[in-house]
Structure prediction request, 353 residues.
Amino acid sequence: EECFILGVTATPLSSNISLPMKEIYNDLIVGENIQSLIDKGFLAEATTYSFNVNLSSLKIGANGDYTVKSSEELYAKNTMQTKLVNAYESTSKGKKTLIFNNGIQTSRHVYEVFKSAGYKIRYIDNTNTKEERKNVLSWFKNTPDAILTSVGILTTGFDEPTIESIIINRATKSLALYFQMIGRGSRIFDAKTEFSVLDLGNNVSRFGLWTSDIDWQLIFKNPTFFLENLISDDEIERNFRYVMPDSIKEMFANSQDIDFDFDVKEEYEIVVKSGQKSKAVLMKSIEQHAKICAENSEDVFDAHILSRELHDDIEFRIKQYSYCILKSSNNYIKWLEEDYKRQLRVKISQLFH
Prediction:
């Protein structure tokens, strides 16, 4: 009855919203922050790369986080798999990499995509036997440029200091999970003093950088207030700015840089002030996209194939347009994207006749 209980954690925020830590512990003693531990040489420095993702299709489950089902539906798409590979190749190619996903099927898809691309990759999840896990982790430890794709089994209780890159191929509303995933790459090892973090879930926009100052006392005392005041996905996406990857831009080498610039909000204001219909914005955008496809293709067939590389740019422009006209239902946005691509194909064909 007189015992004293001491709990130790790096992330004093329960992952279960129905079991806040303040109902178990009376006080919180906060240690040194992450930046201080980096400065003193206890943790590696993280270089963070964020890749914008449209999360409007994700659903929130009873635990307060995104459901596995809705995450699987989004992250298993070919466009997301391509975005993941491009992100890896542009920032982490050749580095020992650990990928976190929100679902076994997504992780298996990731495995197949990277394997097909010729990379050394294996997967690990709760379907593996104890012996299989041991073999996979041994392989990962001893293979310099290994890629390991996983779900949640390695977020805690796993220590592999040779990891050079962490890819968060999922979105989460759990601050604790966010810190745990990044923490897997923070171990100091020999000459290793830094590692990469690739965010494909808008998590940095939601929580801030791993090294950001956090008021843990406030979170401990008022976890519900903290969770309810996280920036919404819609607000995050309103502040997106699309930057075409160099690998795609190279495919449009015959076009000038000015041909890639298109500010939907600015064009919308011009259209409204001139008394035109709002869809004039999309028509102008379509003309620009058709122009760069034609400039970089030998014939109409090549141009149509090249236009597929504009998927992310089109998706971004449509989303920004929906904010301008205050209509952002998923079905309407999907219809706009399909109609945009149809009209783009027509416009491209016209340019070659």
